[in-house]
Amino acid sequence: MKSHTSRRLPSYGRALQERLNDRANWRRWSGTSADGKHPTLWCVTGSGAWEWARFHCDTRLFVLLPADADPEIYNWKLLIGHKPIILLTLGDFDQAVVDRLAAALFRDGVERISHFGSGGISYVARRRAA
For residue range 1-33, what is the model confidence (pLDDT) as tens digits? Predict the structure, then answer.
């Protein structure tokens, strides 16, 4: 397994990093707290993820895992400190990939994930202490 420093950012990762670095403008992003200090971050995957991303790229803070990609090859550390991460599955998806994505998020330091799909919320998970 590659170290986290040699793993690449997921799709939309650079844009998310730039937006997170601009704390003065966090308030403009959908889901940010009223005080502008706590943005909502999304991680989207599934066959409908690219369409969702194109529609929401100007309003939401997110990264995308392509439906056919291995979540373990990406560096998810840019999501640390923003909880919960909203994991959104859209269209067709492989539940085993979603489970591996959640494991990769926890591996890289994400503390809490809320998973939403077409049927609503499917789980809220917290990283277990080592």
Answer: 555 557 999 999 999 999 999 999 999 999 999
The dihedral built from the CA positions of residue 7, 45, 30 and 84, taken in this order, carries a sign that is negative
Tell me phi and psi for residue 13, to 5 degrees. Answer: -65, -40
What's this model's pTM, rounded to 2 decimal places? 0.88
Mean pLDDT along residues 67-73: 95
Can you tell me the distance from the alpha carbon of 33 to that of 40, in angstroms, rounded to the nearest whole number? 8
* Structure tokens that stand for 119 in this block: 């049927």
Show the domains of the chain with their CATH numbers: 13-25+36-121 (3.40.1010)
**Which residue blocks in the chain are alpha helix, DSSP H?**
13-21, 49-56, 95-107
Please report the pLDDT score of residue 2 as a whole number. Answer: 52
Buried residues in 67-103 as b, exposed as e (16+ CB within 10 A): beeebeebbbbbbeebbbbbbbbbeebeeebbebbbe
